[in-house]
Amino acid sequence: MIIPQSTFTSQSKPLKVVGGGNFTAILLENGELYVAGECMLVSGEKAPGWHRIKGLFLDVACGWSHIIAVTSKHEVVAAGIGAKGELGLGSINKSHQFERVIAVQSPNAQVFACFYNSFVRDGRKLYGWGSNVKCQVFSPKSKTVNSPSLVYEGDISNVCVGKNSVCFIGDGIIHAQGAMNEYLPQMRSKLALSGNLELRSMWTSITAFDHKDFRFFGSAGQMQDAVTSCGQLHVHTVSCWSTGSEHGVMCCGNHVYCWGWGEHGNCGATSVANAASVASGINDQSNIKSGVNTVYVTPPQEKVVGCFGGCATTWICIERTGF
């Protein structure tokens, strides 16, 4: 689809929307978790649409064919396909239900995933597992790491995970392991570490935002860096932003913008889109390499409370008032 469609409604605010290869997960503020698409947790369900997963959760992340989460009981669980160790369950590489991977100590533990890797930040410890072909978990490289391995211990923030890479701030220093390591000198020289700095990962890049300027590190063949040159926008008004597989999304005031690789309609329609596509919402592939493009403008009775990028999908969370 190239025009935003209403797909999910709830009385509870969405905290996080994350995408796997062909599925999406939504975590609500009340701890409920819903999935849609080709997710093994609901592979037996014939009805399309959203399916609630039993239990309550604190965080969730998706790789290409797997999903990991932190439960309300402070356990990291995983399900799906993990041929490269991304489930973290040892010799088990497929599960139709959540299986316990590790218990966490921090009440604010987070999970991260992309393609064939999973990471957990548990207080001052960062664990990782899955593919290690680029030394994204540890050195020397290996094909698989099938159980949690300590990546870093210290004061950790801003963890973001891309294809074969992990980036984070550890003890006041930016770290990048795996495929993004070649950009580490640039990041350390160009980024001023502050409490406002935020890092987000696409598959093959890192976008940084300090609420004054956007900076980009990585491959930009599909205009993934377009936000760094959007001089017509007042980026200091950004209320929320995110990155997807190879695109970005942000909200400024009552406007939502996307940029980057929009092959599947995830960067919205431009003025060159044909009328039939705009009317139906069906993608006519008129905006594949997208500059910073307006995808949604909220009417007076709506407020954007979150925006998220999935796998070639964009998610805008709206709070409606006055109904």
Automatic annotation (TrEMBL):
SUPFAM superfamilies per UniProt: RCC1/BLIP-II
GO molecular function terms attached to this record: guanyl-nucleotide exchange factor activity
Source species, domain of life: Eukaryota
InterPro entries named among the record's database cross-references: Ran_GTPase-activating (IPR051553), RCC1/BLIP-II (IPR009091)
Gene Ontology cellular-component terms listed: cytoplasm
Name by which UniProt lists this protein: LAQU0S01e14444g1_1
Lineage per the UniProt record: Eukaryota, Fungi, Dikarya, Ascomycota, Saccharomycotina
